[in-house]
Amino acid sequence: MSIWVLASGRGSNFEVIARRCAEGSIPAKLLGLIVDRPCPAEDRARRLGVPLLRLGRSWSDELLEVLSSRRSDLVVLAGFMRVLPPPLVRAFYPRVVNLHPALLPSFPGMDAIGQAYRHGVKVTGITVHLVDEGVDTGPIVLQRAIRVREEWTLEELERAIHRLEHRWYPVAIRDLLLRAWTVEGRVFKFLDRPEGRVRS
């Protein structure tokens, strides 16, 4: 099995995924990291010895060509700050997965943690979902929630969300690779029982 990872930012989730692949708790070969701009994730890829590709101005055409020429079992979005064009989504659905830092369908789009914080929510969390042609509208694979403490600053909430991401995104990726699942309309379902958890 194999995966691609796409990122645009710091790359902390990419690094967690890369390390899980290297140790075998995500049972897949990491084909490489694809970025759409200069970003700290590139430095992490170089340090970890992961193949790296930076897309150019015609990023969507180039991305479609790369993913088509070397197909993977999953395409993993880890902070990739572009909306995938419909032809690309149709070519790979339902094998593109995204991590969103809120409990969808609440707070889709950009700055989800900030949106939740400014709304004064008492509970928030993360969502792993398959990517469809909308923005954060695909079938939900996994959600995990935390209670928001009244004394938390935005930065403290961000750190708590990142801890959830680093623990549970690898679990979802592993399960998508190993377990039987189906999508019925908007509803994602695993068809078997989980065997265990990825070490957090």
Poorly predicted ranges (pLDDT <50, ≥5 residues)? 196-200
* First-last Cα distance: 21 Å
CATH H-level superfamily: Formyl transferase, N-terminal domain
In total, the number of domains comes to: 1
Highlighted features:
7-stranded mixed β-sheet; alpha/beta; two-stranded antiparallel sheet; Rossmann fold; globular; 36% helix; 6 helices; disordered C terminus; 200 residues
Structure report:
The protein is of the alpha/beta class and 200 residues long. It has one domain (2-190): Formyl transferase, N-terminal domain (Rossmann fold, 3-Layer(aba) Sandwich). 36% of the residues lie in helices and 24% in strands. It is built from 6 helices and 9 strands; from the N terminus they run βαβαβαβαβαββαββ. The protein has helices at 12-23, 40-48, 59-69, 86-92, 112-118, 154-178, and strands at residues 2-7, 29-35, 52-54, 74-77, 96-100, 123-130, 140-147, 181-184, 187-190. The strands form 2 sheets. It has a 7-stranded mixed sheet. Strands 8-9 form a two-stranded antiparallel sheet. α1 (12-23) runs parallel beside α2 and α1 (12-23) runs parallel beside α6. It is globular and about 50 Å long. It starts with a strand and ends in a 10-residue tail after the last strand. Residues 196-200 have low confidence and may be disordered.
